[in-house]
Amino acid sequence: MADTPTEVGEAVPAAQKSSWASFLKSIGSVSGDLSSLTAPPFILSPISLTEFPAYWCERPELFAAIAEAQTDEDRSIAVLRWFISTLKGQYTSRNEKLGSEKKPLNPVLGELFYGYWPDIDGRGRTNLVVEQVSHHPPITAYYIDNTSKGLALQGHSAQKTSFSGGSIIVKQIGHAILTVDIPGGGKEEFLITLPRLRIDGLWYGSPYIELTESSYIQSSTGWLSAIEYKGKGYFGGKSHQYKAVLTPPGSNNAHRTFEGLWHTTSKDLKTGGIFHDVQGPKEEVTVALIDDMDDWESRKLWRYVAKGIREGDFETASREKSKIENEQRQRRKDELAAGITWPLKHFEHIESDPVYERLGRLFRANPSMEDAYVYKGNGPYDQPDAPTA
Fold this sequence. Notes:
Elements: H1 17-29, E1 44-48, H2 60-65, H3 72-91, H4 93-98, E2 103-105, E3 112-117, E4 126-134, E5 139-146, E6 151-164, E7 167-181, E8 187-193, E9 196-200, E10 208-212, E11 214-219, E12 224-230, E13 241-247, E14 256-261, E15 265-268, E16 274-277, H5 298-301, H6 303-310, H7 314-338, E17 347-350, H8 354-363, E18 372-375
């Protein structure tokens, strides 16, 4: 990923510079949440936010490897390695592929995304079910499992955005719970919290993401991974740095330390060896053909918007996007008038997640309570005739 560009506006098409300037002006004038702002079409990604949970498993062999760990410590290390490997896809892949960070399409309530990674070399099949469970604020719930390996990840994410110091600050709300069947019986749980984001490079017309502050992975056995993120500052330094400290149950002393660049490689400071390396190819999620998808599935719903963005036909992209958004506004008005609410298909909302509360107390999580969306077990891959390979 390139560092801050040197040529002003180099990522903004010449014909769109006035639109970009207006967008920056509108950002600077908002004192609260920015989620209601409409971004100019050329800065949009052709991918909906509903697809983003697929980044959790674009290296499915690392997810499956968690099940092979034989001790509590080794499982915590395997979970940390897998988690760090997900960050590149989530936060820099569009920059590297599209030239700068792009704003994902804001999903509609009820939007769906299904996918899987096939069983290769005995790693087991990994399935993904995603549902947009709220539009304002946008909340995405997801469930990922590899039943042959005894792994299940359930979580949700939302964003609150604000403008400060020339950057967009994104507070990620939500968490994930990873459940692992352990050798000899029983289960181990991991609470995974989410880092904050800072979107820099706005004035150059070439936005990019830095992760900031800290996130945590707390095991039910007591092992804790505390991950600190640092980015490129005004006076130098490297982009995308992280340092993770693993501490054993009942102790604040570092037992293992891992550090490096989360978008390329990092080291295990105890052994000096490579801890993670995501410079090689990732594995895209497998999805159905567009014609075989339900109308609510993300790639079918946004297909004409995505086509316009990819082809640089921003007029068509904007028109098709407005068509979807206007239909959604009318649907919400009709529901309000009828006194009904949209029923969730795959998830059930609960006010407080007991696993978050229990594991969060071990490292004094803030906030101390969070809601959750519990998977109903009724996705397309849970049917009796669903493929297993």
